[in-house]
Amino acid sequence: MTDELTFSAYQSAAQRTDQRRGVDDGIVFPLLGLFGETGSLLSEVKKKQRDPVAYLGYEESVLEELGDVLWYLAAVADRAHLTLADLAVNLDCDFAAWQSDGKMDLTFTDVERATQPIANVPSPQFERALLQLSAEVGLLMTDHSAGRLQKNRSALKGRLIGVLRALRTAANEAGVPLSRAAESNLAKIDDRWPPARVAPPLFDDGFPVVEQLPRRLVIGIAEVDQDGKTVSRLTRDGTPVGDPLTDNRAEDDDYRFHDVFHLSYAAHLGWSPTLRRLLRVKRKSDPLVDEVQDGARAVLIEEGIATWIFNHAQRLALFEGIETLDYGLLKSVRRFVSGYEAENCPLWLWEEAILKGYEIFRKVKTHRGGNVGVDLNERKIWFDAP
């Protein structure tokens, strides 16, 4: 990204990630999103005011929320057959001086105003600007609900210009150029919905083969009785792998099969400190990588991620019938692995790893075992019934 990002380029990229475009082309859905994201922006200020010391991440959240408001504004404009450039070119014009069409090469910096560095606490001016933004969004919602915008393109355009103008002011008062919020938003949506899904190189490329996760691997999973307990046992070519597992819980929930998740992380992300430990392929030729990336703490983090997601998935029928995951869940997973190599995996790849892992888990659960295969070169995982 450069400082010369145009409104047209931003809107085009935003349109590509509108998952409901072509299915529901009305403006109600993006209007609800615009209203909700404006509320989220206000919520960030409230949290910082309530806990000025304890609430961390304020600056990052404000930047993200400003970008999200802009995204929904672009979606509303798109469905109303307007462009952001149509709105932006009239930001500083009276109604009588409106231009009917925006310039395709109009950049964010063309309409930017000088800003201070992003503040670590909300200023009174920022609070007032947010109230004005909320008022503009509220007027837009009120007029739409009353039917005053349905056949009045000029009225709708005027309301959207008012929202964009208030958003620009809020961004300026927050110390965030609107161009920066737009660029950050594009980076966010490319992280989740890139134009082309190309997985990054495997983390252990370049290491000796004996220190690499096997590029192709089949693990047998069997449910057996051991000392009066039902356990899950892993094998590779008939040889036991790791220790037999129970659910480690008073009530059975089949978490004993959770090694499927580690296999899926390995297949899609090329990352699984737990599987490295089980297969004894730690990268000992590099002491720092061995200690940090393949060490005990990394294993605990991976196990923590698997458990945390499982608790969430149980409330959603183990993600059956779900094709996309909540962005907040994916963002939390990335926070879990902050400082470790898996932090560099894009969110779309994490989503694939999690959803495919649960697809296989449900099959293993149904059949009470089976063979799970992974191919790291192809980034895939599959299941064969016992």
**What percent of residues adopt helix (DSSP H or I)?**
40-55%
Question: How many structural domains can be distinguished in the coordinates?
Answer: 2
CATH topology of the largest domain: all-alpha NTP pyrophosphatase fold
Outline, from the CA principal axes? elongated
| Spatial arrangement of strands, main beta sheet | 3-2-1-4-5
How large a portion of the residues is in β-strands, by DSSP E?
A: 5-15%
CATH C-level class of the largest domain: Mainly Alpha
Low-confidence stretches: none
Report the strand count. 5
Order of helices and strands: HHHHHHHEEEHHHHHHEE
- Distance separating the two termini: 51 Å
CATH architecture level-2 label of the largest domain = Orthogonal Bundle
- Coarse structural class: alpha+beta
Largest sheet: 5 strands, antiparallel
Rg is 25 Å
Number of helices: 13
Mean pLDDT: 91
Summarize the structure.
By secondary structure, the protein is α+β, with helices and mostly antiparallel strands. It is 50% helix and 10% strand.
Please give a structural write-up.
By secondary structure, this protein is α+β, with helices and mostly antiparallel strands. It folds into 2 domains: 7-192, all-alpha NTP pyrophosphatase fold, CATH 1.10.4010; 209-384, no CATH class. The protein contains 13 helices and 5 strands. The chain has helices at 7-16, 28-50, 58-79, 84-88, 124-145, 153-174, 178-192, 259-269, 273-279, 287-292, 296-314, 327-336, 347-367, and strands at residues 216-226, 229-236, 239-245, 369-375, 380-384. It starts with 6 loop residues before the first helix and ends with a strand.
